[in-house]
Predict the 3D structure of the following.
Amino acid sequence: MATIDRQATTLALAHALSAAERGLAVLPLSRAKLPALRSPHHDDPGPACHGECGRFGHGVYDASADPARIREMFAAAPWATGYGIACGLPPYHLIGVDLDTKYGTDAPAALRELGLRHRFTIPETVVVLTPSGGRHLWLTGPPDAVVPNSASRLAPGIDIRGAGGYLVGPGSRTDHGVYGTLPGTAHLPPAACPPALLRLLLPPPRTSRDPALSHGDHGRGLVHFVLTAHEGQRNTRLFWAACRAYENGLGPALATPLTEAARHTGLPEHEARATIASAARMTGHRP
Ligand SMILES: [Zn+2]
């Protein structure tokens, strides 16, 4: 049963309303950073509804920049202590670059390295600090580009929040602490995503590619990537490979080969399975 912390809810609502004033569409979040309102379709396995029924509880599809609607959503979810900002919507078409510090990765360094290799620099923009020491960079995309969500696809520890994704808004309180903005960045307009970075974020064109063939190769490559890990990289490599597997629809097929490969490098089986399950969740799949 969710406990109610009125002060946290009031604060979250105030922050959500000020984000909405900037044109950002928001939705209430629970302490676990999940949409606070339960689906009204919990018991009816009918066709997928994205809010057409008029009720709340459709995750990121609930997001709104209308203050009256935001107040209604928070009134319906008095256990909310945070808010999410929907990515990929007008006017900003927000792209969130989530730099993680989990799994011993140095995502900011990985992003700098990508920038050197692909010749881009991250412009001055809104930076949100997460309670775990990570940071979210807010960038804007062109209206005609649909940037997919991804976890550790660019590099281990770099997650992208795009269309259908959301960012935990600054001022949100979660189980792990409070999200805040990096001093001096709160009132910056979100900066345009550098074109060279945008190219890396967009899916490759699907022409002239035999999916079965490339999947076969991809699968072998991922297993090899795990097999050749040194002791210090075993878990990071396994996580990265498992994320790629799930994103490419190979997760279930590769779970066992990846576990075997990780065991071969000396990783205990239960650790390997936990890492693969975590990759599944990060990429929005059922472990
Ligand atoms: Zn509905």
Notes: Residues 216-282 form one domain. The helical segments are 6-21, 67-76, 107-118, 195-201, 211-227, 234-247, 251-264, 269-282. Residues 211-227 form the longest helix (17 residues). Confidence is low (pLDDT under 50) at residues 206-215.
